[in-house]
Amino acid sequence: MFALPAGARACGVAGLAFHRTVGERTATLTWQVPKGTPPGSFAVFRNGTRVGETAGRSFAVTVEPGHRYVFGVQALDSSGQGEPCVAKLKQNVRFHPPGRTPGLAVTGGGNRVRLVWSRAARGDGRLAGYRVLRDGKLLRRVHGTSLTILIPAGRPHGFVVMAADTRGHVGPRSNPVRVVRGRRAPGAPARVRTKRVGEDAVLVTWSAGKRRSGRIAGYRIYRNGILLGQVHGRRRHDRNLMAATRYRYSVAAVDTLGYMSAPLARASIKTPTPDATRGRAHAFLLASAGESFLDLQRHYTQIGTVYPTYFDCDGTDGSVTGKDDPAITSWSQLRRIRVLPRFNCQQQDVVHRILTDPVTRDSTIAALVGLVQQNGYDGINLDFENGDAADRAALTAYVERLGASLHATGAKLSVDVSPKYEPTTTGRSGLYDYEAIARAADTVFVMNWGWHWTTSEPGAPDDLALCRQVADYLATMPNRSRFVLGTQMYGMDWASGGGAASPGVALEHADVESLLSRYGLMPELDPAADSWVFTYSDAAGTPHEVWFPDAATIARRVRLARERGLGIGFWRLGREDPDVWADPLIAAGTSWP
């Protein structure tokens, strides 16, 4: 156990916050760091136990609702040494009951009526059913979403409904309805019509319902039997629909007394099937960043394979953590884009355990294959970095096992590797046996950048001379067509000459443009590295040096891949120079060797 230092206080980390979606056992910690002095990575603690490490500004932690936790985040330098202070957050993880039961109404008339309602949102427990109260007292417990009751003559009766979970937690009361014997529900709208409005929206219109005992108060619209809402008029747009999907709509009239017509009139419509991609590029998608998915939507016809960053290794036992994002997965698959989610692990000790401990090795392989089958992925992208070169044979064996297991189900394997231009067996690229990995995997994504890195001196991360040597080396591989030459689309900003004492900060293209505008600068193209560079001094007088790519320099890396018969890939979608996609070599429908 790694205990938090006694008397730890917040310093290099600030703004620690906790976010959890109701019903989830995984929450997200987020934090901030002082501007201009970002540390290399962060250690994350839960109740005094170190649960992982990340280079980002967020981390997924497992929690149990109803418990209290103390979370901590400690900044680490490039050598892994932690600051003497730790940002701490005390958090009560509340157990949420079910949500409010929506849409309670009365149908029918005479002395026998039917109470109907819509399904309540579940809380942190499993939904068990509903409690129906009459005049404030429990009338019945039911599992469904309706109850037929006899109404005695005389005074009116008030009804409410509450959802309950299997642990006895009860949600808030529904809207009340008053039932009087002899009242009649309004007549149902006679006609419901639907019309497509674009790729992902439908306009629903209907005729008026007939007034009876009460005045018409509005109309309730149901999609596939689920209440969408209530409106006063006779039309509603339903947006953000899935493509190539059939939807059924029905409408019921509701009067001022709480009585609702039966939703007899129905209409169905199928949203159009989108055009399939005609692209060949490979691209990583940062699932936690909305602009990354939007970028895919804008340029999907040029992308053939996407690697969403869904899964990571647990920092304690190496198990697979994370979850699918159905919106990204289904959207991509409808457009025939291959989806191979990334399984990311960059802690040397954890990588070693996964590769060399038989139990951990087999359990992670089984978990990855299970995720592919469960979610219908086209395969898995394996991203093991910072591993010891001594585990080179173990990595090859792992790739062979995982590849065979995926291939047995018809799925594919993509493996990310650090760049090299000779068959070295030492250093950060020594872990990867290119030829052996290419025999077992369907794709080898070569991360052809990082020639200058966070704690190095300033320079081009994608130095063209070195990138060309890597491309030339890959062209000699027996399975050359399986290699994808990856290129990064971000820049780096080093303060005070860089190095471990002043680690660099990654900048998106928009960040670079902002700096240039703020300081009124013009960058220069370094002809040897084929990268843009500029310098500036911040408000504190600290000197900075920035190196970054643009569409033109990235296009020359694309040409490297094309001329050598390699695939082309990008890290990552979102906030890159938008002119990247104007390159005719990666245009939709362009043939690629």
Structure, explained:
The chain is of the alpha+beta class and 593 residues long. The protein has four domains: 14-92, Immunoglobulins (Immunoglobulin-like, Sandwich); 105-179, Immunoglobulins (Immunoglobulin-like, Sandwich), CATH 2.60.40; 192-270, Immunoglobulins (Immunoglobulin-like, Sandwich), CATH 2.60.40; 311-586, Alpha-Beta Barrel (TIM Barrel), CATH 3.20.20.80. It is 18% helix and 34% strand. The strands form eight sheets. Strands 25-24-27-28-29-30-31-37-22-23-26 form an eleven-stranded mixed β-sheet.
The overall number of domains is: 4
Number of strands: 37
Query: Uncertain runs with pLDDT below 50, 5 residues or more?
Result: 1-10
> Mean of the pLDDT scores?
92
* Largest beta-sheet details: 11 strands, mixed
Structural class: alpha+beta
Quick one: overall form? elongated
Q: Which value, in Å, is the CA radius of gyration?
A: 29 Å
- End-to-end separation in angstroms reads 52 Å
Task: Give the strand line-up of the largest sheet.
Answer: 25-24-27-28-29-30-31-37-22-23-26
- Strand content bin: 25-35%
What is the CATH top level name of the largest domain?
A: Alpha Beta
Annotated CATH architecture of the largest domain: Alpha-Beta Barrel
- Count of alpha and pi helical runs: 9
